[in-house]
Amino acid sequence: MELWYTENHTKDVRFSMKIDRQLVSKKSRYQRIDVLESKEFGRILTLDGYLMVTQKDEFIYHEMITHVPMAVHPQVRKVLVIGAGDGGTIRELTRYDSIEHIDMVEIDKEVVEVCREYLPQTACCLDDARLDMYFEDGLKFVRTQQDAYDLIIVDSTDPFGPGEGLFTKEFYGNCYKALKEDGILINQHESPYYTEDAKAMRHAHQRIRAAFPISMVYQLHIPTYPSGHWLFGFASKKYHPVEDLRAAEWNALGLQTKYYNTELHKGSFAIPNYVKELLDD
């Protein structure tokens, strides 16, 4: 008997991978959580049936959501991470000795517990002394913050279910207030390829652009995400992601990465024309 995991990318497109076994399946207060052992991608985490993380390609997502802003902002001391229950973004942030404190706000504690047990590759730094975890709604948490953070990373699920509130105009405005005068906001920005994903991407960009003087997108390629073509948003009160890149300083840190480098950093902001047209529409 063969077992396969299938995710519907659209009503006409499906993505499947062969599965060895199911390691856990449970229903939390917010969503269904599954961890599967796959032939090609190792262990995978799905939430409500949607793929979130695989062992084989998670480094692409987590390096690009973290190192891009860290190579631009000259003094990141305090960070807010919203979502990130798998721990991968925290793992990358804790590689920087210059970071003094990280607040992580994840609505679903059971996601973190499952990842600690079944995905230690990503959850390996959740006990770092600089990290405080809050299990609550990120939208409500950020409302209470003002002039508090150098960097906010919104490592959220898709814009429905528990992650829906993290794509609103109110949320991005509250992030602006929570950042210091030279703060940076990074958010996962969906795919520009399929029609419904492109709509979510465009709406998020329009709302962020209304709040921040500098608002751009950059691209990465994740084999297991819809279309493989994914975007992150870079919004800042002060810093331009390419003009203010501190390449020599970042390279001097000697961090070993599998995907990110400072040449790729610059190139990732050179986006295809069809994406430009979507963003300018």
What do the pLDDT scores average to?
Answer: 94
Low-confidence stretches: 159-164
Shape: globular
Radius of gyration: 18 Å
State the distance separating the first and last CA atoms. Answer: 49 Å
Biggest sheet character? 7 strands, mixed
Work out the helix count.
Answer: 10
Strand order of the largest sheet: 8-7-6-9-10-12-11
Structural class comes to alpha/beta
What is the count of β-strands? 12
**Proportion of strand residues:** 25-35%
Order of helices and strands: EEEEEHEHEHHEHEHEHEEHHH
Query: What is the helical fraction, as a range of percent?
Result: 25-40%
Structural write-up:
The chain has 281 residues and is α/β, with parallel strands linked by helices. Helices cover 31% and strands 32% of the residues. The protein contains 10 helices and 12 strands. The strands form 2 sheets. A 7-stranded mixed β-sheet has the order 8-7-6-9-10-12-11, sandwiched between helices. It has a 5-stranded antiparallel β-sheet with strand order 1-2-3-4-5. The radius of gyration is 18 Å and the shape is globular. The termini are far apart. Mean pLDDT is 94; it is low at 159-164.
List keywords for this structure.
10 helices; globular; 31% helix; alpha/beta; 5-stranded antiparallel beta sheet; 32% strand; 281 residues; 7-stranded mixed beta sheet
Offer a quick outline of the entry:
The protein is α/β, with parallel strands linked by helices. The protein is built from ten helices and twelve strands.
Secondary structure layout plus pairing:
Blueprint lengths: L2 E8 L2 E15 L4 E7 L3 E6 L2 E5 L3 H13 L7 E6 L4 H6 L7 E5 L3 H10 L1 H4 L7 E4 L3 H6 L5 E7 L13 H10 E10 L6 H17 L2 E8 L7 E8 L10 H6 L9 H7 L4 H8 L1
Parallel strand pairs: 6-7, 6-9, 7-8, 9-10
Antiparallel strand pairs: 1-2, 2-3, 3-4, 4-5, 10-12, 11-12
